[in-house]
Design goal:
This protein is α/β, with parallel strands linked by helices. It has helices at 9-23, 31-35, 73-90, 119-133, 151-155, 160-170, 227-236, 299-312, and strands at residues 51-54, 60-63, 99-109, 138-149, 178-183, 191-193, 208-211. The protein folds into 2 domains: 9-239 and 297-318, Collagenase (Catalytic Domain) (3-Layer(aba) Sandwich); 240-296, no CATH class. The chain contains 8 helices and 7 strands, in the order ααββαβαβααβββαα.
Length: 319
């Protein structure tokens, strides 16, 4: 797999000094703002296929489950420190138990109207999001739907330069609204998103990009039940892959998701790839299992999402 990821050198040094100053009891820097000003390097277009799904012609296609960038161990420390700083200054009571999320869908189609997503599919996708998140305090409401016949955006939405153009042109109130873009990413990528700490909360770069056929009623079986949007929304709220960091101590930074060496495929219930206690969390929404297999977030994942929203996305639904 060809990819690069990480913080730029000068920014890494600045954050390291900031962490040291905080631990030494000096005036605390605004770590959240510092994190959101960092540029990350990641070659989405260099990812190798790791899954297979049914294409629009009915035949099998190799694809990529998720093109959201990985995170490094030291970055987990920075994000955790920013959250701790925020909770110290705002108080634990600042956490919201219920968060309503307006959602605006951008359906980017071919010039002839191909790769469309219907209103019925959008309604079903919202139902899937609400069924997956409602018990964790998140509800999703439709803010609007925009459809545009634009070949370049529909076909090249994985390209970083093209992505910046269509998001800058079309994003609707990114500080307060989840923008979901459907298109046909190169290399058959099912979806990707950004973490709350990646950009300022009002940046047009925030949002989720999805393969149009991975929504409910699409053709991308076994990823056609709408759980790609759930997975990417998890990233949008700050969750990492359950296999992030493999069997290392920090793993995905969530203690109630057992450590997992590598992404799951299919639905390998009972798989155990790490020597530490617990079977692999293959039914967790943040793994790569088939849509019919994934069904849960853990209590600690819920709290991490709410802490990330309070720290990095305070404008979302007035939180």
């Amino acid at each position: 797999m060809t990819k690069t990821t990480g913080l730029r050198g000068a920014a890494f040094i600045a954050l390291t000094i900031a962490i040291g100053a905080t631990s030494a009891g000096a005036e605390e820097p605004a770590l959240a703002r510092m994190l959101q000003s960092i540029e990350h390097d990641f070659d989405r277009e260099g990812l190798e296929p790791g899954i297979e799904f049914r294409g629009e012609d009915g035949g099998p296609r190799p694809g990529v489950r998720c093109a959201t960038r990985p995170v490094a161990d030291f970055e987990l420390q920075f994000v955790g420190s920013a959250i701790a700083e925020h909770l110290r200054s705002a108080g634990v009571g600042h956490r919201m138990e219920e968060i309503e999320v307006p959602v605006h869908f951008h359906i980017m189609r071919k010039s002839n109207g191909g790769w469309n997503v219907t209103d019925a599919q959008i309604g079903e996708q919202l139902d899937v999001l609400n069924n997956s998140f409602s018990e964790h305090g998140f509800t999703f409401v439709l803010d609007g739907v925009s459809r545009r016949n634009k070949n370049r955006f529909a076909k090249k939405c994985l390209s970083a330069s093209v992505e910046k153009k269509f998001k800058k042109r079309y994003a609707v109130n990114p500080e307060t609204t989840l923008n979901i873009y459907t298109c046909r990413p190169k290399q058959d990528v099912l979806g990707y998103a950004y973490f709350p700490s990646d950009y300022p909360e009002d940046s047009f770069m925030h949002g989720i990009v999805l393969l149009h056929s991975a929504l409910p009623g699409g053709t991308a079986a076994p990823y056609d039940l709408g759980d790609t949007a759930v997975h990417e929304a998890g990233h949008y709220f700050g969750l990492y892959h359950t296999f992030e960091g493999g069997c290392s101590k920090k793993n995905d930074r969530i203690s109630d998701t057992p450590r997992e060496k590598e992404a799951a495929a299919g639905c390998p219930i009972g798989r155990d790839t790490c020597s530490q206690p617990g079977l692999d969390p293959v039914t967790n929404f943040m793994d790569y299992s088939d849509d019919a297999c994934v069904e849960e977030f853990t209590p600690e994942q819920e709290q991490w999402m709410k802490d990330q929203v309070a720290t990095f996305r305070p404008g979302l639904s007035g939180s």
